[in-house]
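Issue 218. Parser rejects a valid record. Input:
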Amino acid sequence: MTPEEGRKLLKLMREHFCLQAEVYALAAILETAVTLDEAPYGWLDALKQARQQDAYRSIAEQFEPQFVQIERALGAKEAEGKLADLLGSLPPTQFLN
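Output the parser choked on:
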């Protein structure tokens, strides 16, 4: 894997975890909509606020230290091993019921 390919893969992984956090935030907004039997007023603002919460960031940024470590090693032989180890340690994506 070239350093450029590694950077593209890390970008994709970062986006994946941001989208996973987004799913949880939107699910909470939808649950509110079901409870109120209408789309919650200001749902977009609620989503923007959710993005600032620690729970959102902990999902979106949970592997950031490992990503930074791999980025620093890109171009070195050990980068592929670190990337493989990280990929092997990722839990499966958690879907909402």
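Fixed in the parser; the record now loads. The CA atoms of residues 29 and 46 lie 8 Å apart.
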